[in-house]
Design goal:
- The chain is of the alpha+beta class and 96 residues long.
- It has one domain: Alpha-Beta Plaits (2-Layer Sandwich), CATH 3.30.70.100.
- It contains 3 helices and 4 strands; from the N terminus they run βαββααβ.
- The protein has a 4-stranded antiparallel beta sheet with strand order 2-3-1-4, with helices on one face.
- α1 packs antiparallel against α3.
- The chain is globular and about 35 Å long.
- It starts with a strand and ends with a strand.
């Protein structure tokens, strides 16, 4: 079965409130079996116009598991806490 990945580009607009999101999203990741591959860290554009400041990459056992994480009650609480703390671009991808 192919793994599922969630890739997010985050533009934090309220760092103090974003800390609450990080706590809640960590709980949601733990509850839903996410493996954190990237969460923040240094970024550098290599090609194109994309210049993200914060990138998150999560791995799940399947595409369905990644979608279930996003739809979970735990992550819904995290998303609500993030509403005015950051702009989020997120996709789910099936992969190896």
């Amino acid at each position: 079965m192919a793994a599922g990945y969630i890739i997010a580009y985050v533009d934090v607009t309220d760092p103090q409130q974003y800390e609450q999101y990080k706590v809640l999203s960590t709980r949601a990741m733990q509850a839903n079996g996410a493996e954190v591959l990237v969460r923040g860290g240094k970024t550098e554009p290599l090609e194109g116009d994309w210049a993200p400041t914060r990138v998150v990459l999560l791995k799940f056992e399947s595409y369905a598991a990644a979608k279930a994480f996003y739809d979970s009650e735990e992550y819904l609480a995290a998303r609500k806490s993030r509403e005015h703390a950051a702009k989020m671009n997120m996709i789910v991808v099936e992969g190896a």
